[in-house]
Amino acid sequence: MVGPCQEGSEKRGNSLVSQEPYNRSYFLEACGGHELYKESGGALLDERLSIVFELAQISSGMRVLDLGCGRGELVRHSAEAGALTWGVDLSQEAIRISKETLLGSCQDKILQRAGLCKAKGSCLPFPPGSFHRVLLSDILEHLSKEELKRTLKEVHRVLSPEGIVVFHTFPNKWFYSLFYPLKRLFGDKIKGQAGPRNPRTYHERLLHLQELSPWSVWRSLRGGFKIKLWCSHRSRWDGRKRRFRSRGGPLGLLREPELWGMAWKK
Question: Could you read off the pLDDT of 173-221 as tens digits, one per residue?
Fold first, then answer.
């Protein structure tokens, strides 16, 4: 299914950001987890998506929205868990690849429970309170500040009263802007191990419309949600206890590159 509210571009300052960078090459050769996707066709989740999936605790009978579904791995696994799942993305190529991911499962039960829709996160074609879970895995940094505000308003609208939002964003702005330069200058450079002055990859510079800090995430969500936030590298995830192992107390807000969280309606 292709939903309404289709858009071809989004404003970025005074220019227009086309969907074109979100092409097949990006999703299959650059987007995080592409190596494992090539091997498994979406049958396996990489570490990042696996943590999002575990945090969401998706079960049979739930209704799940994966917003910014990319290659569709979370759509497939949510449907496999018995949830009625919608994958939404603004990129038509993402919808095509997600369809391939679902068809590759060769399981009728997955195909019957999963739907795909091309739409903007700020204009979702679903009734209020439609979903028990909304997954926002690496989409927040791809939205402008205004688009993020409108998208979170829509997420709040389609989330059921008892529903949960699970999100992940990279990078933590404070890590790239504060911790990394200091570590590079006073630690790594002295040891002769300094990385590049700007650690951002080509696609991060091209596609990330903003970088979020713990403060900006809290500020964006505080109006309509109660929030639980972790600043932690994925390697510190304890799957058995379903939580992240702490590191460095408040300093972790600066030194950890990834932000994870859960949110509930107030």
Answer: 999 999 999 888 888 777 778 788 899 999 999 999 999 999 999 999 9
At residue 71, the 3 state secondary structure works out as coil
Q: Tell me if residue 162 falls in helix, strand or coil.
A: strand
Q: Do residues 85 and 79 make contact, with C-beta atoms less than 8 angstroms apart? A: yes
Residues 6+ apart with CB under 8 A from 263: 164, 165, 167, 221, 225, 226, 227, 228
pLDDT tens track for 43-64: 999 999 999 999 999 999 999 9
Q: Of 97, 89, 177, which is closest to residue 139 (Cα–Cα)?
A: 89
From CA 58, how far away is CA 76, in angstroms rounded? 12
Cα 117 from Cα 226, distance rounded (Å): 28
Indicate the pairing of strand 159-169 with strand 243-244. Answer: unpaired
d(CA 236, CA 243): 9
* Tokens 């909304």 sit on residue: 134
Whole-model pTM: value is 0.90
- Go through the domains of the chain in sequence order and give each one's CATH number: 9-178+198-265 (3.40.50.150)
Angstrom distances, CA of residue 224 to CA of 126, 149, 165, 181: 19, 11, 12, 34
